[in-house]
Amino acid sequence: MKLLITGVSGQVGSEVFRFSKHKNYGIYFSSEPKTPNENIFKVDIRDRNEVFNVVRKIKPDWIVHCAAATKVDWCEINKDQTMEINFDGTKNLVDVSKEVNSKFLFVSTDYVFDGSKGNYKEEDETRPVNFYGQTKLDAELYVKNLGNYLIMRTSHVFSPLPDNFVLWAIGKLKSGDIDCPSDMISSPTLALELAEAILKAMEKDLSEVYHSAGAESLSRYDLARKISKAFGYDESKIIPIKMVDLKFTAPRPHNSSLDISKILNEGIKFSNVDSALERLKEEMGTSST
Questions:
Q1: pLDDT tens for each residue of 155-201
Q2: How far apart are CA 103 and CA 149, in angstroms?
Q3: Torsion angle defined by CA atoms of residues 51, 56, 61 and 64, in that order, rounded to the nearest 10 degrees
Q4: What is the rounded distance in angstroms from the CA atom of residue 91 to the CA atom of residue 104?
Q5: Predicted TM-score (pTM) of this structure
Q6: Dihedral of CA 140/24/165/227: which sign?
Q7: For residue 219, what are the β-bridge partners?
Q8: Residue 276 needs a FRET pair 20 to 30 A away by CA distance; which of 69, 147, 285, 286 works?
């Protein structure tokens, strides 16, 4: 099976590329992958001609679309650029996948929900509260024009790569106190486990929408406490606050946790937070303290 993975320098795309036993091709744009590979190319997914040219050459069995603008406050400020990346880029990939008859897997987000209730099922009403979530929902709706698609919505991804909450929390715990909201709830997901789920879902030829996230829902505050325990830091440094205290540029859903019963029924498993943090430590080469 031949895969074309977008966003191979990102948290999820890099893990899919690393662990896939298939014939892998990858594309990136802003950050070059650390490990050179002759099957990885720099492609701007906003450039329709560029996208069509590379996909026509590769003719993948699956396009695994992980690339996105994901920094929520940046997206709220830079709406045109966000729309170009998250919607137009997806549209280009969808359109060429139709031409070359590739199956299409789209990694989406819990932020398509408004967070008013949590534990969302696949069929629950979508109602994004920020621009990032809206662009991902718009992209989902376009993906659904395909006859053969798979949308995997995930939540609060972390990995050994920078720019995620877990590594941010570790850095803050090393140097002092850390303020974490007790009213901001999600389903923290190890990128490696999401990559494993993506590969299994393709092998099973799943289709339509699956929630694919960590098996436990908890607040940023409770997650930080688990991080401090796993990595041997002082839990008393973690100070509970409210989301409103953080003065985000973009609104966030209060509880965007996902019900993963549907994918569990397919035999695809996710860990609770403690187990996922232990797997992260193994990836980082960090021993228990």
A1: 999 999 999 999 999 999 999 999 999 999 999 999 999 999 999 99
A2: 6
A3: -10
A4: 11
A5: 0.96
A6: positive
A7: 185
A8: 69
